[in-house]
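Quick one, T. Sequence first:
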Amino acid sequence: MILKEIKYRNYKARIVKLTRKQAKYGNMYGCYFPDTQTIAIQEKLPNYTLLDTMLHEIGHFIADKSKIRLANLGEEGITTFVGSEFAKVLMQNPKLIKFINKCCKR
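C-alpha cells:
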C-alpha cells in the first residue's frame, strides 16, 4: 500500500495492514481505532473494495476528530460537511490522490 498515514487538520492517522485472517475474524475489510489514530485495511483487496474501504475508514477518522454530530445536520448539512472535510483531506494528502487514481485504473 502506498499510503502510510492520512493527515486531517492537525491530526495524523497511521495506516497499517490487516491480514486476511484478522479481517475474516472481525468480519471486516478495515477498521479505524480512535485510541491510537490507526486505520487498518485488509491486504490484497480488489481495487474497488480497497478504495471504498479506505474512504470509509477515513470518514470514521474525520468524524472522530471533527466532533460534529452528523445526525443533527440534516441532508444538506451532511453533504456540505462531507464534501468540505474530504476536500481538506485531499488537499493535505497528495499521495491519497495517487492512491485513488491507482485504484481506479483497470
